[in-house]
UniProtKB/TrEMBL annotation:
CDD domains: GT20_TPS (cd03788). Gene3D superfamilies: Glycogen Phosphorylase B (3.40.50.2000). It comes from the Archaea. This is Trehalose 6-phosphate synthase.
Length: 516
């Protein structure tokens, strides 16, 4: 079956977060489309099929004028501004079906079970796991509501996104045994030894086995999932071909590494907006041309290894005093999930470590680390990527990590194709030596970006510090070679490749045939 088969069928995407947020600004209704490649990629798929997107309506609860009492709003709600590429948003519309979840349910389902049980377990973090019976009940209830809303849309195909929705597939399956159900899991799947700490381990697996196919970024995560099924779901059989026989059906598992739109990131990096933002940063923080820039871009989440990175920088300066004044560390931070105490503590800890670093090593004319928290758009972010001499991604665990791929793409193509202006080739016009990437071996992106990126174990403070030093001292030729290899790998596994693979799975093609 091909993509065309998908176009003829009714597709329902179900995700926790909505693709558009409606709000009032100065009394006027506004629509905000989150930036970033993933939402617009998914948006395009739903729009192609004229389908329905079911999501929790997390925007302004008072906003209503275009929204029917059941939370539905016909898309497109308002014209979206043409971007710098000159692309108008003329995609066909689809139905955005918003779920209005009561506050208590959101607290326990989203901030509770999803982000204090499942998120830490999937990232192999035991300490933040908080088991409260109200969390699991709310997760069941919210998943039921998402499932009911999906069923109401009379779907042929349902595409669930991520870890907030592990039970919904089973609930939809009960109502619609004939529908094709597919899920993509954006975070790692842990080993069976670790997953076992989850009190609802078997229930979650049975929920996910309501799907016909479950996708992960890496084969390693898919293998962990099958291992968990074999161990914790006694009535399921995992075949040698990697399929799962369950409840008279075959459930496929597959690995599809998600990627970015590399050309778009490179164009953003070469844009005036990127340059202007960088100039503002340079002026505001008095960054000196002769100093290297080391960059970190993260949601302030304990899985991102920001504290480990700051420890490594501190160790680097302690053991290499001659590096004092040679670089500035720029941390772009985005606050996240702050209703959860572990996240509030993490924010405080990151800020305190940066202050410690500056107190311990700063001088009158050198601030070793700066912290930027303001909202910036994708072009401004690309300006940071483009001007960094070294980027550090040091997650303790990360399903994929798009920041690493975006940084690689923002360096542009080192050798423009003959006859084309550099900009046309996605390369910044200025001939600039590309930045080097220091990358944790515990992120999905390391599988494709290393060894071109310098691989580190973020728990090994000495090894981590040496690798940052190596990146700072890397010569121009080596930087170009590594950047070229990274860009090639970003292109080989870009967002289009991921989407094409998802569409094949959604359409029901390329089935793994169970041989039992
Ligand atoms: C989950 C998985 C997986 C960040 N700061 C700013 C900003 N960003 C954008 C980046 C990037 C995105 O946010 C972050 O994506 P990551 O992949 O790095 O991390 P998660 O948010 O944890 O995503 C992850 C992903 O899902 C997809 O499957 O890769 O492993 O954890 O796109 O550019 N964007 C702007 N300003 C910022 O300050 N505009």
């Amino acid at each position: 079956m091909t993509d065309d088969a998908l176009a003829d069928r009714s597709l329902v995407v179900v995700s926790n977060r909505e693709p558009y947020v409606h709000d009032y600004v100065d009394g006027e209704p506004t629509v905000e489309r989150p930036t970033g490649g993933l939402v617009s990629a998914l948006d395009g798929v739903v729009a192609e099929t004229g389908g329905t997107w079911v999501a929790w309506g997390s925007g302004d609860a008072d906003f209503d004028p275009q929204v029917a009492p059941d939370g539905r709003v016909e898309m497109p709600p308002e014209p979206v501004e043409a971007d710098e590429e000159g692309e108008d948003d003329d995609r066909p519309g689809y139905t955005l079906s918003r779920l209005d979840l009561p506050r208590r349910l959101v607290e326990n389902y989203y901030y509770g079970y999803s982000n204090q049980v499942l998120w830490p377990i999937c990232h192999l973090e035991a300490d933040p796991v908080t088991v409260d019976p109200a969390f699991a009940d709310a997760y069941r209830e919210a998943n039921r509501r998402f499932a009911e809303r999906a069923v109401e849309a009379d779907p042929d195909v349902v595409w669930f996104q991520d870890y907030h929705l592990a039970l919904a597939p089973q609930y939809v399956r009960e109502a619609r045994p004939d529908a094709r159900l597919v899920q993509f899991w954006h975070v790692p799947w842990p080993t069976a030894e670790f997953f076992e700490i989850c009190p609802q381990a078997t229930e979650l697996l049975r929920g996910l086995l309501g799907n016909d196919a479950v996708g992960f970024h890496l084969e390693r995560y898919a293998a962990n999932f099958r291992d968990c099924v074999a161990r914790f779901v006694p009535e399921a059989t995992v075949t040698d071909a990697g399929a799962i026989r369950y409840d008279g059906r075959t459930v496929e598992t597959h690995a599809s590494p998600i990627g970015v739109d590399g050309d778009r990131v490179a164009r953003n990096a070469a844009s005036d907006a990127a340059e202007h933002y960088w100039e503002r940063v340079v002026a505001r923080y008095d960054l000196r041309e002769e100093r290297s820039v080391v960059l970190g871009v993260d949601r302030l989440d304990y899985t991102k290894g920001i504290v480990e990175r700051l420890d490594a920088l501190s160790h680097l300066l302690e053991t290499n005093p001659e590096l004092a004044g040679e670089f500035t560390y720029v941390q772009k931070g985005t606050r996240t999930r702050e209703r959860i105490p572990a996240y509030r503590r993490y924010y405080d800890e990151v800020r305190a470590r940066i202050a410690d670093l500056d107190r311990a090593y700063g001088t009158e004319d050198w601030t070793p680390a700066i912290y930027i928290e303001e909202d910036i758009d994708d072009r401004e972010l690309a300006g940071l990527y483009r001007h960094a001499d070294v980027a550090v991604v040091s997650s303790r665990r990360d399903g994929m990590n798009l920041v690493a791929k975006e940084f690689a793409a923002a360096q542009g193509r080192p050798a423009p194709t003959a006859g084309l202006a550099p900009e046309a080739n996605g390369a910044p016009a200025r001939d600039r030596v590309p930045g080097a990437l220091v990358l944790s071996r515990f992120v999905g992106a390391a599988e494709s970006l290393c060894p071109a990126a310098l691989s580190v174990n973020p728990y090994d403070v000495g090894g981590f510090a040496s690798m940052i030093r190596e990146a700072l001292e890397m010569d121009a030729n080596e930087r170009r070679e590594r950047a070229s290899a990274m860009r090639a790998s970003v292109e080989a596994t870009d967002i289009d490749a991921w989407l094409a693979a998802q569409k094949r799975v959604l359409a029901g093609g390329e089935r793994v045939v169970a041989d039992d």
